[in-house]
Amino acid sequence: MPREKKSSPATIQATSQQTRFNLEETASKELDLKGVHISIGRREIISDAHLKLSIGVHYVLVGRNGTGKSTLLRAIGEKLIPGIARNLRILYLQQSYDSDGGQDEEGGEEGVLEFVVRSDRIRTNTLRRFECECLWVVRRFGEWGLNFTL
């Protein structure tokens, strides 16, 4: 019986129209790239596109499975498209991920939203401080003989 060949995942090839100015780092938090081409292997996903994303605007990608929506997001998130500044902060959360066990505090499966919220350290630390302050207040009420529960 012949063995099946394990194919390695095809790499994303991305190009864009280059500017003569060095935009490796820029103060702009927006993308404006012309002549964008993205392909995987021999399959062309995007051809000669103008990719313009503005800060504060919400975008929706709609299309059938396999048309390249995730590939485009991955190419942007991993800064594979030439012209995306190195200092531009981009967060790309894949559809599947490996977290520390993948479970929430109650032992259930952790969803993407919980994963993102948990990764926000400032929010998490602020909530912990608030919980400690609330417990302190409850204990004080108890010391004063008052009945108080959260």
The percent range for strand residues is 15-25%
The largest beta-sheet arranges its strands as 1-2-3
User: What's the helix count?
Assistant: 3
Q: Radius of gyration over alpha carbons?
A: 24 Å
Structural class: alpha+beta
Shape field: elongated
The largest pleated sheet is described as: 3 strands, antiparallel
Distance between the termini: 66 Å
Mean pLDDT: 77
**H and E order:** EEEHHH
Low-confidence stretches: none
Number of beta-strand segments = 3
Helix content: 25-40%
Give an overview in words.
- By secondary structure, the chain is an alpha+beta fold.
- Among the domains are: 66 residues, no CATH class; 31 residues.
- Helix content is 27%, strand content 17%.
- The protein contains three helices and three strands.
- The chain has a three-stranded antiparallel beta sheet with strand order 1-2-3, covered by helices on one side.
- A hairpin with a 2-residue loop joins β2 and β3.
- The model has no long low-confidence stretch (mean pLDDT 77).
Gist of the model:
The protein contains three helices and three strands. It is α+β, with helices and mostly antiparallel strands and 150 residues long. Among the domains are: 12-77, no CATH class; 113-143.
List the helices and strands and how they pair.
Layout: E1 12-15, E2 31-40, E3 43-53, H1 69-77, H2 112-119, H3 121-143
Antiparallel strand pairs: 1-2, 2-3
Q: What are the main properties of this structure?
A:
single chain; 150 residues; alpha+beta; three-stranded antiparallel sheet; 3 strands; 27% helix
